[in-house]
UniProtKB/TrEMBL annotation, chains A, B, C, D:
The lineage of its organism: Bacteria, Pseudomonadati, Planctomycetota, Planctomycetia, Pirellulales. Coiled coil: none annotated. One of its GO terms (biological process) is action potential. It comes from Rhodopirellula baltica (strain DSM 10527 / NCIMB 13988 / SH1). It holds the Pfam family Ion_trans. The keyword RNA-binding does not apply. One of its GO terms (cellular component) is membrane. The chain crosses the membrane at residues 43-61, 81-100, 112-135, 178-199, 243-262. Residues 41-262 form the Ion transport domain. Its main location: membrane. This is Potassium channel. It is a multi-pass membrane protein. Keywords: Ion channel, Ion transport, Membrane, Potassium, Potassium channel, Potassium transport, Transmembrane, Transmembrane helix, Transport, Voltage-gated channel. InterPro entries: Ion_trans_dom (IPR005821), VG_K_chnl (IPR028325), Volt_channel_dom_sf (IPR027359).
Amino acid sequence: MSTATEKVLRRRLIQRPAESGLRQTLYDVIFEADSPLGRGFDIGLLVAIIASIVLVSLETVPEYGLQRDPNSEVPVSSLAIWFWVLEWFLTILFTIEYVLRLYCVRHPLKYAFSFWGIVDLLSILPNYLAIFVQYSAKSFVILRSVRLLRVFRVLKLWRMMSQADELADAVWKSREKIIVFLAVVLVAVTISGTLMYQIETVLMGQYHDSDFTSIPQSMYWAIVTMTTVGYGDVVPHTTIGKIISAALILLGYSLIIVPTGFVSAELTSKIAGAAEHHPCPQCGLPNHRSGAVHCDRCGHRLDEAILPEPAPEATPT
Amino acid sequence: MSTATEKVLRRRLIQRPAESGLRQTLYDVIFEADSPLGRGFDIGLLVAIIASIVLVSLETVPEYGLQRDPNSEVPVSSLAIWFWVLEWFLTILFTIEYVLRLYCVRHPLKYAFSFWGIVDLLSILPNYLAIFVQYSAKSFVILRSVRLLRVFRVLKLWRMMSQADELADAVWKSREKIIVFLAVVLVAVTISGTLMYQIETVLMGQYHDSDFTSIPQSMYWAIVTMTTVGYGDVVPHTTIGKIISAALILLGYSLIIVPTGFVSAELTSKIAGAAEHHPCPQCGLPNHRSGAVHCDRCGHRLDEAILPEPAPEATPT
Amino acid sequence: MSTATEKVLRRRLIQRPAESGLRQTLYDVIFEADSPLGRGFDIGLLVAIIASIVLVSLETVPEYGLQRDPNSEVPVSSLAIWFWVLEWFLTILFTIEYVLRLYCVRHPLKYAFSFWGIVDLLSILPNYLAIFVQYSAKSFVILRSVRLLRVFRVLKLWRMMSQADELADAVWKSREKIIVFLAVVLVAVTISGTLMYQIETVLMGQYHDSDFTSIPQSMYWAIVTMTTVGYGDVVPHTTIGKIISAALILLGYSLIIVPTGFVSAELTSKIAGAAEHHPCPQCGLPNHRSGAVHCDRCGHRLDEAILPEPAPEATPT
Amino acid sequence: MSTATEKVLRRRLIQRPAESGLRQTLYDVIFEADSPLGRGFDIGLLVAIIASIVLVSLETVPEYGLQRDPNSEVPVSSLAIWFWVLEWFLTILFTIEYVLRLYCVRHPLKYAFSFWGIVDLLSILPNYLAIFVQYSAKSFVILRSVRLLRVFRVLKLWRMMSQADELADAVWKSREKIIVFLAVVLVAVTISGTLMYQIETVLMGQYHDSDFTSIPQSMYWAIVTMTTVGYGDVVPHTTIGKIISAALILLGYSLIIVPTGFVSAELTSKIAGAAEHHPCPQCGLPNHRSGAVHCDRCGHRLDEAILPEPAPEATPT
């Protein structure tokens, strides 16, 4: 993972302008998060992205009447005008940012065709396209959702927090177990889904209504049930189906708690191993409890405190 | 956190009457919980507050017919009369308590305009206002809910239980992880909510009914699903929506178990650190790591072993 | 807890017949589980109790037509006759058992009026009463449910399994934390329930239908939601209600995972503490990994194995 | 468990042809997974089995119109023809595999009547039978579901992943606790199910509709609720039923988190025991407890510290 980070860093440095000046300063502010200005830019960008996502989300609420009519660009209600103004404000902001990014990198074309370059373009394009082309409001939403991906751009903010790494690390270390677990879950889901389909639909379907209309539907039920989500849109209606699904629930519950235990255990050992405070100055034993005064192996004082010695035989005369 | 407690203590002492006498005794009983009388007062207050909350709650049950008619203060049914009597009894009790609090503090005005002073006043005011002003029964309920906040006043009872601190501490230590986790959850919720909206409404909306009427609705679905609550008021209706939501459920489930693991791990290391092995024979410090040779407070050897030195190469001649 | 067990034991010994003979042998078989015969009796009793519970349960299923008609004692369908026969067989078995218990204890009256004596009587009485008295089938079910309590009688079987104690111990040790946790949950439930009632019914009730008909109903919703059960019979219908309930779900979820962590941590430290294998014969260090050959403090061999020394410098000449 | 594996290995070796040649090579490829070819065969088989399961599953979706008409073997829609072709392709593949298995084992009859032999036969038989016999499409599905069992045949692939063993081991070690836990759950389910039936149906059934139509139905509700699945198809309708079910939910939740803790704790102690500190400089044993001074296999000092002996009173003169 650290080599992956290095690769990203090296790829970035290729884009950093060699000569110091406005372009290099701009590059550091826009692409890096080490300086206060760079961090401020990132936070501002995060706020703008979140605002734009909130706008896109709220426009889809039918009762607000913000769904753009495909035949007229300017919306009618006063609330809709505010939304329209705000959105164009953000679009222009993102456009300026995009142009600045193109300006300050060493190889603009390379950036424009990189993953983030395309995402940046796609997040502003739909609004401009809407002026020229008359397309349905629905497909409009799909295009603008690309904007969501930009949230990840600011994820570098998280790198400042050491905790994110630790979390990612714990998940990463458990990856093999997670794969095994997913395989077990899928087999369990297939078997219990098929079983419930047989019982509810094939055997009892002529006597009762059945929600288990097909095996994929039953597998959907099995996943919804085993994860204890339990929507209730697919439920057994026969007595035998209820008994078997109750047994499957208990089994599935036992199965699904295992990965919880794994992640928890992984984190426990990590936290225990990270308790490296107070290395002993004499013998170098690394782990001591917080509050320890003496090394618990060699008895040497951990800190050269000016306090008197605690007990008589510890101060030999 | 301990400095915060100290600050609270100091602020309190400012209010404690200097001269001993009735006022100081009253102050100690009402504001402190150290003496048996003070603890008794707190428990009595807790019971009264809970009773008053139960009354306010039950009055809202429509089938009991206790909703006060805005045009007549005195209710009609015999059950309602009992409620009315009990509530006035509690209101008068809280009024006496409020007057006594004003009486025994050093600076009554300072108390009256403090947070708890305002809460205390607001919890009795609605009942008195109801005599003079004729307002709707609905808004009446809102005002009286302020009473709920008074429960926190008696939370000082919990300070007696050392466990509450430990619990709060474990949550507090995990705060950064919780923030990171919430950020991850919100990004996951936004992306999966938008994805389901696209699939269920934009792509398949013309063929099926869709519960995913807007992106905020879809994000509500994502939160309800990821936390495994699963009401079932918003569910996918298309086959492709079911497949994708099943995948999202498994992903979301994997994601949401991580904080469980963190809190669990934090608590494990806390409890493990408090394990009682190897009490020091000299200073009596109870907790040492397994494997510790010297007491980590006074440096004394933990066991008076008569054994020779561990290994030959460790005793240089 | 061990003193409680002792008390139970002493109380039992009071009932044990002093003189050896048939009565004492019977007592040991019926009341104790130490001998093979006593254990066999307990297992047989467990099977009979479970069978009788299954019978009582299945009789309430309307489609089997086993609900006894209050006007005729003997049921009609052939399935019902089987049930009727089986139930009288079990009733007579329990009657014999009850009489034997009365016969073999030292003070029959003391037993007859003890808790288990009354439960034993109540579990057979309804069937006999049904012959003489004509009462409704419904109240019949209530009386016969007392039989359920008898399951606990055989719980002494569990004492054979050392694991049950450990489990009970882990729960017992966490009891203070559980009380604090329940208090926090109840406060959270009251506050979030009232909040949702205000928003959904008081504020928005005139525009939408509301499931939050009263504060107790809202508190029921809060408990069902926070424990992630999520029936879906009470759900928010307004946009603002959905946003707030989504926030409350995330908060509640964070709150409710804490006790999971506590129990998990308690058990972890318990299991870690129970890993006391391989005490060192030289320095007495108690905990070594399974598979350890040398004490990891003094280097002494843990077992006097006849294997040659692993490495040359460990065998000084 | 390792002896069980050995037993399986020995049973297999009985079937391995003694003389090297085509049969032995085929045997190693088909039955073993040690060689690259054998592993490739297993992965290919896994893909074929998954494909065949997906086919069987999708055929049950009513909207695809793939349910075979019992009166005509060849389906009509072009999609159905593709399914028909693919399925026969897989059936012929499995037939070849079955014949090869019969050919290369030492005792073909012994294999044919072994568990896996019968499963292999049953997974291809339904398709051939369908040509001669005209039976209902429904029962057809049941027979073909046997195919699912074949997934387990390829589970030997998992043996390559060491993680699966560890997971199985953790579950296995907790088996006694799981049995105790299941017993507790079943008693809790029976008692709370009966209680809710009494309250909702027997006591309040004449005033409200009740979902708790019988005790088994109530026990189904109890399991669905305690595991926090919460479908919502059975919910309390009376106020008293809601209060009691809320209390039962909290109790049940507390109960059901215990096994999570157990598995988690078991895994924690396992992982903690495997932590990689202090590799031995002499024999290279990687895992030592923090605080270990000597390697616990060869007794060598773990660190070549040049420090004086820990504390004065520990060096007797």
